[in-house]
Amino acid sequence: MLKDITLGQYYQTDSVIHRLDPRVKLVTTICFIISLFVVDNWVGYVLAGVFLVLVIALSKVPPSFMVRGMKSIVFLLIMAVVCNLFLTQGEPLVTIWKLTITKEGVIQAGKMAVRLVFLITGSSVMTLTTTPNQLTDGLEKLLKPLNAIRVPVHEIAMMMSIALRFIPILIEETDKIMKAQIARGADFESGNLIQKAKNMVPLLVPLFVSAFRRANDLATAMEARCYRGGENRTKMKPLIYHRRDYLAYGAVVLYLATGVVLGRILF
């Protein structure tokens, strides 16, 4: 289950999406997520699905990798669907005990499910095709104007980069601890919800200890290498826009414009 979390991992291959500037991928992901919540009709979702499938195909990331990443949000997806089904007011369709499923609830639950799946998949495509260093450089470059109002842009970008790096490391560490605990007789599966939560304590304590130890080792290594954040830092690989990046920006604008136009014509 832990290895099914693909967010934060990098998939090594050579594709058009991998070669894009990280700023393009960050802006595209943000625009894609915003479009999911701004466009509130099925035409917009179909268009978003086509756009997402095209990007995944160009990225050369196996679709099975994307499907595997969905397993980590199954519980969240079910909760969102159930809440929308039973808590949305409208025309009654089915009554189960004291709970009523409405027509509006079914529609809203479907939209929420599509939004969550597309949101996680779109974010995963960005992290799977971009290294943490590239994400840091791209984010820092995009937020550079905020330096004028004394926002520590470099430090924020560095913290996000370190957090993304630690996701696969902590997942691997958790898997090792779980296997070690199971070998010693620990049971993480049986019992009710409260019992399962209690069974997680022997797992969480060594995990937190390991996380703090790794953080301390990282801080010591950065100090030993005389790391100093902030201004006047140079880049070994400075970010430069190429023709493919401008074409990608054009594709994003076309996607957004098509969604708005079709939404106004059909609704």
From TrEMBL:
Main location: membrane
Cited Pfam families: CbiQ
Keywords noted in UniProt: Cell membrane, Membrane, Transmembrane, Transmembrane helix
Subcellular location: Membrane
Topology of the protein relative to the lipid bilayer: Multi-pass membrane protein
Family annotation (InterPro entries): ABC/ECF_trnsptr_transmembrane, ECF_transporter_component
Transmembrane segments: 26-59, 65-87, 246-266
Protein name (database record): Energy-coupling factor transporter transmembrane protein EcfT
Organism encoding this protein: Suilimivivens aceti
